[in-house]
Write a structure and sequence with these properties.
heterodimer; A: mainly alpha; 2 domains; 73% helix; B: alpha+beta; Rossmann fold; Dna Ligase, domain 1; four-stranded antiparallel sheet; four-stranded parallel sheet; 22 strands; 29% helix; globular
């Protein structure tokens, strides 16, 4: 597979995952805002912004921090639409590699976001539906991808992009939340705290899955355990690390480049999650979570070194 | 026989027909659907019946469905000169253009003769140049052509096939015969629209389609791949074939991705390729991989900054040397533009005589060389009647259509012609043939041409059909997509004219 194509597939997938995360975060927080005092709400939006990855460089425009308009801006041109646009632009550059069905779904999502009128306020009718439609659109694309694309090397880059992005995103969301709220209150002190923790779970689409696992008894440490170490929940860090390690191994096998740096880094991340204990992790949670983000970044860099931006002489010898 | 003019309106059927075609005025040129008397041509009879039975509202809905299908599939082209990345769908007309098997037979033989000649000419020109020594084509015409590549002198080209992918523009003259308007021998585009038009019309008009016996075009991708394979350097049994695109901002990018997918080959950009020891490699995730055949959709000028334009970032440094060494095949070959220069065009009938000793099956349109003093003065006196074209341009740019021009435009062209006569030719303003099109809820005639796509590898093959381009503006003669043109599907019928295929549904649906 062409290196440039692998690069585009990988970033197409990362941007789609980012779109979904962003849309869900905004949607959940919009709902939560209803239950909060105005001061809490502003703090909440700042937290949300802190947990987002950087928007693509060409749309970097300082968001007015602390104003409720940030939501609106997020749903407008600055972020969600930009991510969808970036995903589609990457897909357009590899149109011959992805299935026509995938392209049609991506294009449909892009056109829906493009045609949407700018949102004037967060309470404009249809904002919720709009965000839900974006999430739904991304799910459609993922489903069509799995159902229509050959699960070969290209598909593995799509998987890799998705789970690498997801591992970082879940770690960032957790990190920001745990910095603001003490996990020691067992169970959470007041109703307002309870709402925040449920909000965290919902931001990761995890509330229902959590309840089935632990019942509705919401405790910060269990939430951390669920979102970091659970092996079965698809948005947990452990799950993402296992999938991205599988993809890297598959790519190494297909290209005959086994035991590269990226594989070893991914294997190490997975092993640390395999054998980690939540009690130990809780002691240094912020450091631990930032470590996850850092490791995800070095896996990204090592993957580039190995498959995409390698020096030509190394390849020819 | 149904009539367009409302002379003998009688049956209900006639009244409906009148409603559908009430604004259909026969022009000076040939009409694809109606003969001079206004009677429907036999092979259009079924189409005419079906169109008359359908509510214009429904036609409109089907048109919207087709437009939406194009938009959703991203079948678009990029418009230059507007906001960067402006994508438009290529306007598509629902009503198919139908050619009989006998008409196609002449076209097929004529184009085969022409492409065979042009390949012989290029081989001769870039080797012994007997054609110049024998005085068939004047030397100054060749040496002053900006698409003539001295670098190609003596380069060995596999099977002597210089042009393996061509698209020739045909027009229909008022007497119903076809003539060649121009050859496109560099990087002709539009074939993807021929293929997608067919897919869409099958979806939109399944009943109508099945009631005609239309020859398929879907195997074009396979034939193109076979043509490219035939060019593989002989010592490479399992070749890697790629399509080289200028990139996502090129107006034909959709087509490049479409063809690569149809053939199952990699679509590469210049930055994906590099040359080492005169061998071309592409950068893959498994390391560098050797490339054997490049179907390039990048112009000569941009293909190798070391050999041609040094400021090109689209090309591959060293590619031309690898090509000259025979380590990689490029198609179309470098320097084929000399044979589709509009000034050389006038000599093609003589070339057919010279190389094949045959008379041209498809005639040329009368052409005046403006480098010739007597032609020039003749043309300058009649600018308001004639069409003047810059020889090296394509896509409908650099063209003056006399009858539709203003005094100022004519003066500007007059100055340009006098300053650089070699750069211009003139042709009579042709009454292009017209075909029925669905415009603003009515059926009206619009001017059309035809671009069939010719493949030439081990042998010459032409998929039956081509791109019928439509000048969607009323009265306009310009069919180029960059100038407000659209397209319609082109049906070439099988041997016998069959009103209805046995077993096909005979309900009056579409």
């Amino acid at each position: 597979m062409l290196s440039r194509v692998a690069d585009s597939l990988y970033w197409m997938s990362r941007y789609l995952e980012r779109t979904e995360n962003m849309a869900r975060l905004v949607n959940v927080h919009l709902n939560l805002t209803l239950d909060r005092t105005p001061a809490d709400a502003v703090r909440q939006w700042e937290r949300l912004l802190a947990s987002l990855p950087e928007p693509p460089p060409w749309v970097q425009k300082p968001l007015p921090a602390g104003s409720p308009r940030t939501t609106v801006d997020l749903a407008n041109r600055e972020s969600i639409a930009a991510c969808v646009g970036a995903a589609r632009e990457n897909a357009r550059q590899v149109r011959e590699e992805i299935s026509s069905e995938m392209w049609e779904e991506i294009n449909r999502l892009f056109l829906a976001v493009q045609q949407r009128q700018p949102i004037e306020s967060e309470w404009t009718a249809g904002t919720h539906e709009f965000l839900a439609a974006i999430i739904n659109g991304v799910h459609q694309i993922q489903g069509v991808t799995d159902a229509t694309m050959t699960h070969g090397e290209g598909w593995q880059y799509i998987e890799l992009g998705r789970y690498l992005e997801r591992a970082s995103a879940t770690a960032s969301i957790l990190d920001v939340q745990f910095r603001d709220f003490s996990p020691d209150a067992l169970p959470p002190a007041g109703v307002s705290e309870y709402v925040e923790w449920v909000g965290l779970l919902k931001s990761c689409c995890a509330f229902e899955a959590y309840c089935r696992h632990y019942t509705a008894d919401v405790r910060p440490q269990r939430i951390a355990e669920f979102l970091v170490l659970n092996t079965e929940f698809p948005r947990s860090i452990h799950f993402a690390a296992a999938r991205l390690q599988m993809s890297l191994r598959a790519i190494a096998g297909l290209t005959g480049r086994v035991n590269g740096r990226a594989d070893r880094l991914a294997g190490r991340l997975l092993a640390s999650l395999d054998y980690g204990q939540i009690e130990e992790i809780m002691g240094e949670l912020p450091v631990y979570l930032q470590g996850i983000v850092r490791q995800a970044n070095s896996i990204n860099a090592a993957m580039y070194q190995q498959y995409i931006a390698y020096p030509i002489d190394a390849g020819l010898s | 026989m149904s009539r367009v003019s409302p002379i003998d309106a009688g049956s209900l059927n006639h009244l409906q027909r009148l409603e559908q075609f009430q604004d259909y005025a026969l022009g000076a040129g040939f009409d694809e659907m109606f003969d001079r008397s206004g009677a429907t041509r036999d092979h259009y009879a079924t189409l005419s019946e079906r169109l008359c039975a359908i509510d214009p509202q429904e036609l409109h809905q089907r048109q919207s469905a087709a437009d939406l299908a194009f938009l959703h599939q991203g079948i678009t082209f990029t418009v230059y000169g507007e906001r960067e990345g402006t994508e438009r769908i290529f306007p598509y007309d629902l009503i198919p253009r139908i050619l009989t098997s006998a008409e196609w037979d002449v076209i097929e033989r004529g184009l085969t003769q022409r492409i065979t000649t042009l390949n012989l000419f290029l081989k001769d020109l870039y080797n012994d140049a007997a054609v110049l020594a024998d005085g068939i084509v004047p030397r100054e015409l060749i040496y002053s052509c900006k698409h003539f590549r001295r670098e190609m002198q003596g380069v060995r080209v596999r099977h002597d096939i210089y042009v393996s992918v061509a698209g020739t523009d045909l027009v229909r003259l008022p007497d119903g015969s076809f003539a060649v308007l121009e050859d496109n021998l560099r990087v002709p585009s539009g074939v993807s629209y021929m293929l997608t038009n067919r897919q869409v019309i099958k979806r939109v008009f399944p009943l109508l389609f099945s009631s005609y016996d239309v020859r398929p075009v879907d195997h074009y991708g396979q034939q193109l791949l076979a043509t490219l394979k035939a060019l593989t350097p002989s010592h490479r049994p399992d070749p890697t074939i790629v399509l080289l695109t200028p990139g996502v901002f090129n107006s034909a990018y959709f087509e490049h991705t479409f063809l690569a997918r149809q053939m199952g080959i990699d679509l590469v950009e210049g930055r994906d390729l590099f040359v080492h020891d005169n061998v071309v490699f592409m950068r893959t995730t498994a390391g560098p991989r050797r490339v054997d055949v490049i179907y390039r959709r990048v112009d000569d000028d941009y293909i190798d900054p070391l050999a041609f334009r040094a400021d090109s970032t689209l090309g591959v440094p060293g590619l031309f040397n690898a090509y000259r060494s025979g380590n990689v095949a490029l198609t179309n070959a470098i320097g084929t533009g000399v044979a589709d220069d509009k000034a050389l065009y006038a000599y093609v009938p003589a070339l057919i005589k010279y190389y094949l000793d045959q008379d041209p099956i498809l005639p040329n349109v009368e052409t005046w060389q403006l480098s010739n003093a007597s032609h020039r003065s003749f043309v300058l006196e009649r600018l308001e009647e004639l069409v003047v074209k810059a020889v090296g341009e394509s896509g409908g740019y650099g063209m003056l259509i006399g009858p539709h021009s203003t005094q100022a435009e004519r003066e500007a062209f007059r100055r340009q012609i006098v300053a650089d006569p070699r750069n211009y030719v003139a042709q009579p303003t042709l009454a292009l043939s017209a075909a029925p099109c669905f415009v603003d809820g009515r059926i009206e005639p619009r001017h059309v041409d035809l671009r069939p796509y010719i493949l030439s590898g081990d042998q010459v093959s032409i998929v039956p059909g081509g791109l019928t381009r439509v000048a969607l503006r009323k009265g306009s003669l310009v069919v180029n997509s960059s100038q407000g043109g659209g397209s319609k599907d082109t049906w070439v019928l099988n041997k016998q004219l069959q009103a209805r295929r046995p077993g096909a549904p005979d309900a009056a649906g579409l």
